[in-house]
Design a protein that fits this description.
There is one protein chain. The longest helix has 21 residues, at 260-280. The chain has 2 domains: 3-177 and 295-386, Zn peptidases (Aminopeptidase, 3-Layer(aba) Sandwich), CATH 3.40.630.10; 181-293, Alpha-Beta Plaits, CATH 3.30.70.360. It has 10 helices and 14 strands. An 8-stranded mixed β-sheet has the order 1-2-4-3-5-14-6-13. Strands 9-10-8-11 form a 4-stranded antiparallel β-sheet. The chain has a two-stranded antiparallel sheet with strand order 7-12. It has helices spanning 3-9, 11-23, 32-44, 102-116, 141-146, 204-222, 260-280, 300-310, 331-335, 368-386; strands spanning 49-52, 56-62, 65-75, 124-132, 155-166, 169-171, 175-178, 181-189, 229-238, 248-257, 284-293, 296-298, 317-319, 340-348. Strand 1 and strand 2 (56-62) form a beta hairpin. It has 387 residues and is α/β, with parallel strands linked by helices. It starts with a helix and ends with a helix.
Length: 387
Amino acid sequence: MDAQKEVLSRRQEIIGLRRWLHQHPEESLQEFETAAFIEEQLDRLHLPHHRVGETGVFAWLKGGQPGPITVLRTDIDALKIPDEKDVPYKSLRPGFSHSCGHDMHMASLLGTAMILAPQHEQIRGEVRFFFQQAEEIGAGARQFIAAGLLDGATRVLGLHADSSVPSGKLVIMPGPNNASCDAFTITVQGKSAHVSTPHLGADALYIASLIVVALQGLVTRLTSPVDPVIIGVGKMTAGTTYNTLAQTAVLDGTTRFMQEETRSQINQRLTSLAQTIAAQYGGKAQVTFQAYASVLSNDPAVCRELQALYQDIPGLEIITNREMKLGADDFAEFLLQVPGSYLYVGTQRADDLNTAVPHHNGHFDVDEDAVLMGSLLFTKYVMSRHM
Protein backbone atom coordinates (compact mmCIF):
# COMPACT_ATOMS: atom_id res chain seq x y z
CA MET A 1 0.00 0.00 0.00
CA ASP A 2 1.32 3.44 -0.98
CA ALA A 3 0.57 5.73 1.98
CA GLN A 4 0.99 8.97 0.02
CA LYS A 5 -1.27 7.79 -2.79
CA GLU A 6 -3.93 6.71 -0.28
CA VAL A 7 -3.85 10.10 1.47
CA LEU A 8 -4.02 12.09 -1.76
CA SER A 9 -6.96 10.03 -2.98
CA ARG A 10 -8.89 11.25 0.07
CA ARG A 11 -7.76 14.87 -0.17
CA GLN A 12 -11.18 16.48 -0.47
CA GLU A 13 -12.69 14.33 2.26
CA ILE A 14 -9.88 14.99 4.75
CA ILE A 15 -9.91 18.74 4.08
CA GLY A 16 -13.70 18.71 4.33
CA LEU A 17 -13.42 17.17 7.79
CA ARG A 18 -10.95 19.85 8.82
CA ARG A 19 -13.22 22.65 7.59
CA TRP A 20 -16.28 21.29 9.40
CA LEU A 21 -14.30 21.01 12.61
CA HIS A 22 -12.91 24.52 12.12
CA GLN A 23 -16.47 25.85 11.89
CA HIS A 24 -17.57 24.11 15.10
CA PRO A 25 -15.01 24.90 17.83
CA GLU A 26 -15.70 23.94 21.43
CA GLU A 27 -13.64 24.83 24.49
CA SER A 28 -12.01 22.38 26.86
CA LEU A 29 -14.32 19.80 28.49
CA GLN A 30 -17.23 21.09 26.41
CA GLU A 31 -16.36 19.23 23.19
CA PHE A 32 -19.71 17.40 23.02
CA GLU A 33 -20.56 18.09 19.37
CA THR A 34 -16.95 17.50 18.35
CA ALA A 35 -16.93 14.10 20.07
CA ALA A 36 -20.24 13.16 18.46
CA PHE A 37 -18.90 14.13 15.03
CA ILE A 38 -15.78 12.02 15.56
CA GLU A 39 -17.94 9.07 16.60
CA GLU A 40 -20.03 9.44 13.43
CA GLN A 41 -16.89 9.15 11.32
CA LEU A 42 -15.70 6.12 13.29
CA ASP A 43 -19.09 4.45 12.87
CA ARG A 44 -18.82 4.87 9.09
CA LEU A 45 -15.49 3.07 9.28
CA HIS A 46 -16.90 0.34 11.54
CA LEU A 47 -14.24 1.07 14.14
CA PRO A 48 -15.24 0.28 17.74
CA HIS A 49 -15.01 3.21 20.13
CA HIS A 50 -16.14 4.57 23.47
CA ARG A 51 -16.02 7.79 25.45
CA VAL A 52 -13.24 8.69 27.86
CA GLY A 53 -14.71 11.03 30.41
CA GLU A 54 -17.58 13.00 28.88
CA THR A 55 -15.94 14.25 25.70
CA GLY A 56 -12.82 12.20 24.90
CA VAL A 57 -13.11 9.40 22.32
CA PHE A 58 -11.06 6.21 22.20
CA ALA A 59 -11.12 3.95 19.13
CA TRP A 60 -9.11 0.88 18.24
CA LEU A 61 -8.20 -1.26 15.26
CA LYS A 62 -7.19 -4.83 16.06
CA GLY A 63 -5.46 -6.61 13.24
CA GLY A 64 -5.78 -10.18 12.09
CA GLN A 65 -2.24 -11.01 13.17
CA PRO A 66 -0.30 -10.62 16.45
CA GLY A 67 1.99 -7.62 16.78
CA PRO A 68 2.79 -4.43 18.70
CA ILE A 69 0.43 -1.79 20.05
CA THR A 70 0.81 1.78 18.76
CA VAL A 71 -1.07 4.82 20.07
CA LEU A 72 -1.87 7.77 17.80
CA ARG A 73 -3.13 10.87 19.60
CA THR A 74 -4.88 14.08 18.64
CA ASP A 75 -6.27 16.88 20.80
CA ILE A 76 -9.80 18.11 20.09
CA ASP A 77 -10.51 21.30 22.08
CA ALA A 78 -10.63 24.87 20.79
CA LEU A 79 -10.15 28.28 22.38
CA LYS A 80 -12.29 31.14 23.60
CA ILE A 81 -10.86 33.48 20.96
CA PRO A 82 -12.99 35.11 18.21
CA ASP A 83 -12.30 33.92 14.66
CA GLU A 84 -11.25 37.06 12.77
CA LYS A 85 -10.49 35.45 9.39
CA ASP A 86 -12.55 36.05 6.27
CA VAL A 87 -12.75 32.50 4.91
CA PRO A 88 -15.66 30.24 3.86
CA TYR A 89 -14.97 27.91 6.80
CA LYS A 90 -14.88 30.63 9.46
CA SER A 91 -16.10 29.62 12.91
CA LEU A 92 -19.87 29.54 13.27
CA ARG A 93 -19.59 30.04 17.02
CA PRO A 94 -19.04 33.70 17.94
CA GLY A 95 -16.18 34.12 20.39
CA PHE A 96 -14.63 30.69 19.76
CA SER A 97 -12.10 29.39 17.24
CA HIS A 98 -9.68 26.60 16.42
CA SER A 99 -6.79 29.05 16.64
CA CYS A 100 -4.19 26.45 17.62
CA GLY A 101 -4.60 23.81 14.91
CA HIS A 102 -6.46 21.07 16.74
CA ASP A 103 -8.95 20.88 13.86
CA MET A 104 -6.03 19.97 11.61
CA HIS A 105 -4.82 17.34 14.05
CA MET A 106 -8.24 15.68 14.22
CA ALA A 107 -8.70 15.64 10.45
CA SER A 108 -5.22 14.17 9.96
CA LEU A 109 -5.93 11.33 12.38
CA LEU A 110 -9.40 10.65 10.97
CA GLY A 111 -7.80 10.48 7.52
CA THR A 112 -5.42 7.82 8.79
CA ALA A 113 -8.33 5.89 10.29
CA MET A 114 -10.06 5.96 6.88
CA ILE A 115 -7.03 4.45 5.22
CA LEU A 116 -6.31 1.80 7.85
CA ALA A 117 -9.81 0.56 8.68
CA PRO A 118 -10.30 -1.39 5.40
CA GLN A 119 -6.87 -2.98 5.88
CA HIS A 120 -7.65 -4.58 9.24
CA GLU A 121 -6.89 -8.12 8.07
CA GLN A 122 -3.39 -7.06 7.04
CA ILE A 123 -2.70 -5.23 10.31
CA ARG A 124 -0.41 -6.85 12.85
CA GLY A 125 -1.19 -6.04 16.47
CA GLU A 126 -3.34 -3.07 17.43
CA VAL A 127 -3.60 0.61 16.59
CA ARG A 128 -5.26 2.84 19.19
CA PHE A 129 -6.70 6.24 18.37
CA PHE A 130 -6.86 8.85 21.14
CA PHE A 131 -9.14 11.81 20.43
CA GLN A 132 -8.21 13.63 23.60
CA GLN A 133 -10.18 16.41 25.21
CA ALA A 134 -8.98 19.45 27.17
CA GLU A 135 -5.36 19.72 26.08
CA GLU A 136 -5.48 23.49 26.53
CA ILE A 137 -6.07 23.13 30.27
CA GLY A 138 -4.06 19.94 30.83
CA ALA A 139 -7.13 17.95 31.83
CA GLY A 140 -7.37 15.28 29.14
CA ALA A 141 -4.27 13.09 28.89
CA ARG A 142 -4.48 11.91 32.48
CA GLN A 143 -8.04 10.68 31.88
CA PHE A 144 -6.83 8.36 29.11
CA ILE A 145 -3.97 7.15 31.27
CA ALA A 146 -6.22 6.55 34.28
CA ALA A 147 -8.54 4.49 32.08
CA GLY A 148 -5.65 2.13 31.32
CA LEU A 149 -5.66 2.91 27.60
CA LEU A 150 -1.86 3.02 27.37
CA ASP A 151 -1.53 -0.46 28.86
CA GLY A 152 0.59 -2.67 26.61
CA ALA A 153 1.48 0.14 24.20
CA THR A 154 5.05 0.19 22.93
CA ARG A 155 4.95 3.48 21.00
CA VAL A 156 2.95 6.71 21.16
CA LEU A 157 2.93 9.30 18.39
CA GLY A 158 1.37 12.75 18.19
CA LEU A 159 1.72 15.83 16.04
CA HIS A 160 1.06 19.56 16.21
CA ALA A 161 0.70 22.36 13.69
CA ASP A 162 3.49 24.94 13.81
CA SER A 163 2.89 28.30 12.13
CA SER A 164 6.51 29.35 12.69
CA VAL A 165 7.70 26.58 10.34
CA PRO A 166 7.10 26.68 6.56
CA SER A 167 4.83 24.05 5.08
CA GLY A 168 6.87 21.14 3.76
CA LYS A 169 9.12 21.09 6.80
CA LEU A 170 8.84 18.75 9.79
CA VAL A 171 10.47 19.11 13.22
CA ILE A 172 11.59 15.85 14.88
CA MET A 173 13.76 16.91 17.81
CA PRO A 174 15.05 14.44 20.41
CA GLY A 175 14.89 15.36 24.08
CA PRO A 176 13.06 18.31 25.65
CA ASN A 177 10.82 20.21 23.21
CA ASN A 178 8.27 21.93 25.44
CA ALA A 179 8.10 23.23 28.97
CA SER A 180 6.12 21.98 31.90
CA CYS A 181 3.09 24.06 32.84
CA ASP A 182 1.68 24.66 36.29
CA ALA A 183 -1.03 27.17 37.13
CA PHE A 184 -0.88 28.84 40.53
CA THR A 185 -3.20 30.94 42.63
CA ILE A 186 -1.91 33.11 45.47
CA THR A 187 -4.60 34.35 47.83
CA VAL A 188 -3.44 37.13 50.12
CA GLN A 189 -5.50 37.77 53.24
CA GLY A 190 -5.00 41.21 54.79
CA LYS A 191 -7.01 43.50 57.02
CA SER A 192 -9.23 46.29 55.82
CA ALA A 193 -8.73 49.87 57.06
CA HIS A 194 -9.10 53.42 55.78
CA VAL A 195 -6.21 54.53 53.56
CA SER A 196 -5.50 57.36 55.99
CA THR A 197 -4.68 54.83 58.74
CA PRO A 198 -2.66 52.11 56.98
CA HIS A 199 -0.98 51.10 60.23
CA LEU A 200 -4.34 49.79 61.48
CA GLY A 201 -4.71 47.35 58.62
CA ALA A 202 -2.76 45.03 56.35
CA ASP A 203 -2.91 46.04 52.69
CA ALA A 204 -3.45 42.86 50.66
CA LEU A 205 -3.07 44.76 47.40
CA TYR A 206 0.33 46.15 48.38
CA ILE A 207 1.45 42.73 49.58
CA ALA A 208 0.32 41.14 46.31
CA SER A 209 2.20 43.79 44.31
CA LEU A 210 5.41 43.04 46.19
CA ILE A 211 4.94 39.34 45.51
CA VAL A 212 4.53 39.97 41.75
CA VAL A 213 7.83 41.85 41.60
CA ALA A 214 9.70 39.48 43.92
CA LEU A 215 8.72 36.39 41.92
CA GLN A 216 11.03 37.48 39.11
CA GLY A 217 13.96 37.24 41.50
CA LEU A 218 13.38 33.50 41.70
CA VAL A 219 14.19 33.36 37.99
CA THR A 220 17.06 35.85 37.80
CA ARG A 221 18.85 34.92 41.02
CA LEU A 222 17.97 31.30 41.86
CA THR A 223 18.11 29.54 38.49
CA SER A 224 20.84 29.15 35.89
CA PRO A 225 20.69 31.68 33.04
CA VAL A 226 20.90 28.78 30.58
CA ASP A 227 18.00 26.88 32.19
CA PRO A 228 14.80 28.33 30.67
CA VAL A 229 12.28 29.37 33.35
CA ILE A 230 9.16 31.53 33.21
CA ILE A 231 7.08 32.81 36.12
CA GLY A 232 4.19 34.90 34.86
CA VAL A 233 1.27 36.53 36.67
CA GLY A 234 -1.61 37.08 34.27
CA LYS A 235 -4.31 38.31 36.62
CA MET A 236 -4.59 40.25 39.88
CA THR A 237 -7.86 40.96 41.64
CA ALA A 238 -8.01 43.10 44.78
CA GLY A 239 -9.95 45.72 46.71
CA THR A 240 -13.46 47.12 46.73
CA THR A 241 -13.07 50.90 46.72
CA TYR A 242 -10.46 53.60 46.14
CA ASN A 243 -10.00 54.74 49.74
CA THR A 244 -9.86 51.45 51.62
CA LEU A 245 -6.99 49.01 52.12
CA ALA A 246 -7.77 45.80 50.26
CA GLN A 247 -8.68 42.98 52.59
CA THR A 248 -7.97 40.29 50.01
CA ALA A 249 -5.99 40.01 46.80
CA VAL A 250 -5.75 37.10 44.38
CA LEU A 251 -2.96 36.46 41.89
CA ASP A 252 -3.30 33.93 39.08
CA GLY A 253 -0.27 32.89 37.09
CA THR A 254 1.85 30.12 35.65
CA THR A 255 5.31 28.63 35.96
CA ARG A 256 7.13 26.98 33.05
CA PHE A 257 10.28 24.86 33.23
CA MET A 258 12.42 22.66 30.98
CA GLN A 259 13.84 20.63 33.88
CA GLU A 260 11.66 18.71 36.33
CA GLU A 261 14.16 19.25 39.15
CA THR A 262 14.02 23.03 38.66
CA ARG A 263 10.22 22.81 38.52
CA SER A 264 10.03 21.19 41.94
CA GLN A 265 12.53 23.54 43.58
CA ILE A 266 11.16 26.83 42.26
CA ASN A 267 7.50 25.98 42.84
CA GLN A 268 8.37 25.31 46.47
CA ARG A 269 10.33 28.56 46.69
CA LEU A 270 7.38 30.46 45.19
CA THR A 271 5.14 29.27 47.99
CA SER A 272 7.68 30.18 50.66
CA LEU A 273 8.33 33.62 49.15
CA ALA A 274 4.66 34.55 49.00
CA GLN A 275 4.03 33.47 52.59
CA THR A 276 7.11 35.30 53.89
CA ILE A 277 6.28 38.60 52.19
CA ALA A 278 2.68 38.45 53.37
CA ALA A 279 3.73 37.80 56.97
CA GLN A 280 6.21 40.71 56.86
CA TYR A 281 3.33 43.13 56.26
CA GLY A 282 0.77 41.61 58.60
CA GLY A 283 -1.04 39.36 56.15
CA LYS A 284 -1.22 35.70 55.17
CA ALA A 285 -0.78 34.01 51.81
CA GLN A 286 -2.18 30.71 50.62
CA VAL A 287 -0.69 29.18 47.46
CA THR A 288 -2.26 26.42 45.39
CA PHE A 289 -0.89 24.77 42.24
CA GLN A 290 -2.58 22.88 39.45
CA ALA A 291 -0.29 20.74 37.28
CA TYR A 292 -1.26 21.05 33.61
CA ALA A 293 1.65 19.32 31.87
CA SER A 294 5.09 17.87 32.48
CA VAL A 295 8.18 18.66 30.42
CA LEU A 296 7.61 17.22 26.93
CA SER A 297 10.69 15.18 26.02
CA ASN A 298 10.89 13.04 22.88
CA ASP A 299 12.56 9.63 23.03
CA PRO A 300 15.83 9.86 21.04
CA ALA A 301 15.57 6.31 19.68
CA VAL A 302 12.03 6.89 18.42
CA CYS A 303 13.14 10.16 16.82
CA ARG A 304 15.84 8.28 14.92
CA GLU A 305 13.23 5.75 13.75
CA LEU A 306 11.01 8.55 12.46
CA GLN A 307 13.82 10.47 10.78
CA ALA A 308 14.83 7.35 8.86
CA LEU A 309 11.22 6.55 7.97
CA TYR A 310 10.22 9.99 6.71
CA GLN A 311 13.39 10.95 4.84
CA ASP A 312 12.04 9.53 1.58
CA ILE A 313 8.80 11.59 1.56
CA PRO A 314 9.08 13.75 -1.58
CA GLY A 315 9.60 17.45 -0.85
CA LEU A 316 9.74 17.03 2.94
CA GLU A 317 12.60 18.65 4.86
CA ILE A 318 13.26 17.29 8.35
CA ILE A 319 14.53 19.63 11.07
CA THR A 320 16.22 17.88 14.00
CA ASN A 321 17.29 20.85 16.09
CA ARG A 322 15.61 24.16 16.92
CA GLU A 323 14.87 26.41 19.89
CA MET A 324 12.90 24.80 22.67
CA LYS A 325 9.40 26.16 23.17
CA LEU A 326 8.07 27.26 26.55
CA GLY A 327 4.54 26.46 25.51
CA ALA A 328 3.21 23.23 27.03
CA ASP A 329 1.24 20.21 25.88
CA ASP A 330 -0.11 17.37 27.99
CA PHE A 331 1.04 14.86 25.37
CA ALA A 332 4.02 14.98 27.72
CA GLU A 333 2.12 12.74 30.14
CA PHE A 334 1.94 9.97 27.53
CA LEU A 335 5.67 10.24 26.88
CA LEU A 336 6.33 9.64 30.57
CA GLN A 337 4.59 6.28 30.22
CA VAL A 338 5.50 5.03 26.73
CA PRO A 339 8.43 5.76 24.36
CA GLY A 340 7.34 8.09 21.60
CA SER A 341 7.67 11.41 19.87
CA TYR A 342 5.75 14.61 19.24
CA LEU A 343 6.12 15.95 15.70
CA TYR A 344 5.79 19.60 14.69
CA VAL A 345 4.37 20.00 11.19
CA GLY A 346 5.09 23.24 9.34
CA THR A 347 1.83 24.99 8.37
CA GLN A 348 3.05 28.38 7.10
CA ARG A 349 2.34 29.09 3.43
CA ALA A 350 4.15 31.98 1.73
CA ASP A 351 1.05 33.37 -0.03
CA ASP A 352 -1.29 33.29 2.98
CA LEU A 353 -0.49 35.70 5.82
CA ASN A 354 -2.98 34.02 8.15
CA THR A 355 -0.84 30.88 8.17
CA ALA A 356 2.11 32.86 9.55
CA VAL A 357 0.41 34.45 12.57
CA PRO A 358 1.14 33.03 16.03
CA HIS A 359 -1.00 30.34 17.59
CA HIS A 360 -3.86 31.56 19.84
CA ASN A 361 -4.49 34.46 17.46
CA GLY A 362 -7.90 35.13 15.91
CA HIS A 363 -6.42 35.15 12.37
CA PHE A 364 -4.69 31.77 12.80
CA ASP A 365 -5.02 29.35 9.88
CA VAL A 366 -3.04 26.47 8.38
CA ASP A 367 -1.90 25.46 4.93
CA GLU A 368 -4.34 22.65 4.18
CA ASP A 369 -1.61 20.63 2.47
CA ALA A 370 -0.21 20.28 5.99
CA VAL A 371 -3.43 18.49 7.03
CA LEU A 372 -2.65 15.85 4.42
CA MET A 373 0.96 15.73 5.56
CA GLY A 374 -0.20 14.98 9.10
CA SER A 375 -2.29 12.09 7.84
CA LEU A 376 0.62 10.79 5.78
CA LEU A 377 2.95 10.88 8.80
CA PHE A 378 0.52 8.92 10.97
CA THR A 379 -0.26 6.40 8.20
CA LYS A 380 3.32 5.79 7.17
CA TYR A 381 4.33 5.16 10.79
CA VAL A 382 1.58 2.60 11.31
CA MET A 383 2.48 0.85 8.07
CA SER A 384 6.12 0.59 9.18
CA ARG A 385 5.14 -1.12 12.43
CA HIS A 386 2.00 -3.05 11.62
CA MET A 387 2.03 -4.09 7.93
